[in-house]
Amino acid sequence: MPNPPPIIYKQGDLYWCDPDPNQTDTVGSEQKGDRIWLIVSIEKLHRGNCLVALPLSRHVEKVAQYAPPHLIKVPAEKITMEDGNPSINRVALTDQIRALDKRRLKRKAGFISHQAVLGVLTGLDFLFGRVFPSSKTN
Amino acid sequence: MGTAMLEMPTRVAPPFEVGTLGTLGANENGLARRRKDEDLIHNLVSVLDEQLLHVLQCRQTSECHDARAKVWPKYVRARRALTDTMSNLVPEKTREHLSAAAQAKIAADLDGARGILFGDAVADQMMFSMWVVSKMQAIGEQIAKSSPPKDEDEDRKLIADFHLFAMWGQFHYDCVIASMKFNLALPDDIQEAVCDGLRAWVNASVIVEEALALRQPSVEQAPEVALPWDEEDEQLLASSMRDLDAESSSDHL
Description:
The complex is a heterodimer of chains A (about 140) and B (about 250). Chain A is α+β, with helices and mostly antiparallel strands and about 140 residues long. Chain A has one domain: SH3 type barrels. In chain A, about 15% of the residues lie in helices and about 25% in strands. In chain A, strands 1, 2, 3, 4, 5, 6, 7 and 8 form an eight-stranded antiparallel β-sheet that branches. The longest helix of chain A has 14 residues. The radius of gyration of chain A is 16 Å and the shape is globular. The radius of gyration of chain B is 22 Å and the shape is globular. The termini of chain B are far apart. At the A-B interface, strand 3, strand 7 and helix 2 of A face helix 5, helix 6, helix 9 and helix 10 of B.
């Protein structure tokens, strides 16, 4: 039987991170601590099994009360869930960005729109202190 | 033509000079314009202030939303008129220097008003908005140097969306400036609405990036090459995953 085609992990895709295989008592649900991860790195630049992602929290009250502006709101209409369930408003926790192992991302949760991806990347730019001096005022 | 992002002097910068509302009162001498020109600009600023004060005097969210809906059309007309008038009467170099000076002054004023007229959320969101605008301007300069867009219809749609989001962001930006100008504290409910409105700058910035993408090739179009991966990389990745596993059952993001 031929091998299944390799999974392509694209920027903007959402994945559930599977539980640690050494911990057999976890089922894997958001309620149990698993999270939806948004891939922010570009597929073509992935090395080995490494990609870069950040969690999309369902706790939007983080933004409603007070949150640093680099935590970016992702409205439900910008999120498409693979299982057909309705999306909910989420917030991209840009300061929780990290390297993830592809082998632990087996269940695709969905994807967010390209515009939403760019919004999250704007939050990351701010977090990383990028500056954009204007050449006109120099 | 029809392909330039916004068809305005500063290209993809917002269709107005950010911060001019706060600057005009403080830098009258710097304008060095004839009296009637100054009067015209000041009258337009007064019209804008009048609209903003309707919103700033609200005490509850629903009241604020109603007032905002009511003043919005007049605000948009006044804002556009002010932008056009400034473009016609004030040399581009002067406007650019005024804008830079205004941003520095606003940043200083925000520090002074933080915790007095409004809370950290508004002050930080304003700083973020100023940063987003500077990013948009930088991308706008790249757009100005780029070739025409691959898809002109898509480009026109982006321009329309950009105007909407940028104007919405500018309205709430001006609300905060007016709060400082008139020393009016923003009630908590209004602060939340203002923060939410300021987030429109992110949408505007995203649209500007999309406009740039219509003109420049992306990294994803680069040829594929095999990237190296070694034992150290493997260990670091495993370490990252161990950190994740350690915290996954203890909290809920």
